[in-house]
Amino acid sequence: MDAIHTIAIGAGLAWASGMRLYAVMFAAGLLARVGVVELPGNLAVLTHPWVIGAAGFMFFIEFFADKIPGVDSLWDAVHTFIRIPAGALLAAASLGVSADPAWVMVAGILGGTLASSSHFAKSGTRALINTSPEPFSNWAASFGEEALVAGVMWLAFSYPVLSLCVLAVLVAVSIGLIIGLWRFMKVIFGKLAFHSAVAADAASGRASARLSTGTH
């Protein structure tokens, strides 16, 4: 396997793990075990039956948890501490034990960055979608994310150069979403703070008026 293909697989799995870590581990491990794809470096550990079984079990839980409004955001919050380190590990493991440790470290840093971009874009978008009372937009977003993860993985294994180009676009879109969501949340919290201050001032004014009336 050439360097470009290795980089594409490591980067693709890292980015996709920010959205669906367990699906990525389960699919990559199972497909490699039956000979459909080849995994570079130490990623061959994903083909171990226990790893496939554990990843498959967690994927089953995540599949349903991600489609329940509110539960999905709680799941995302907890997995902030799991998906990003896992993305770093997947990218680093793609280089193998014979690689220069400095490059392994670089791969881990970049893999964690890729995973964090997709994770925060996903979790922020889903939190915004959950403000809607109906569940259909949540389901559409969840199935859409799973299709996107499958597409990124397919490109990484089949068309490495195209995969890296697509990843560059996805990272740019993710960063744009994160910035937009941050600005939106600042506006929302600013309005809430303003209304809270107005309500507090009004309550204070009413209390002062009652005290003034009582003294007379």
- Briefly note the structural class of the backbone: mainly alpha
Number of helices: 6
Binned strand content:
under 5%
Unreliable stretches (pLDDT < 50, length at least 5) are: none
The mean pLDDT is 88
Radius of gyration: 23 Å
Q: Say how many strands there are.
A: 0
**Assembly level:** single chain
Q: How far from one another are the termini?
A: 90 Å
Helix content: over 70%
Order of helices and strands: HHHHHH
Q: Could you say which overall geometry the principal axes of the C-alpha atoms support?
A: elongated
The major sheet is characterized as: none
List key phrases describing it:
single chain; 216 residues; mainly alpha; 83% helix; elongated
Structure description:
- By secondary structure, the chain is mostly helical.
- Helices cover 83% and strands 0% of the residues.
- The chain contains six helices and no strands.
- The longest helix is centred in the last third of the chain and has 56 residues.
- The mean pLDDT is 88.
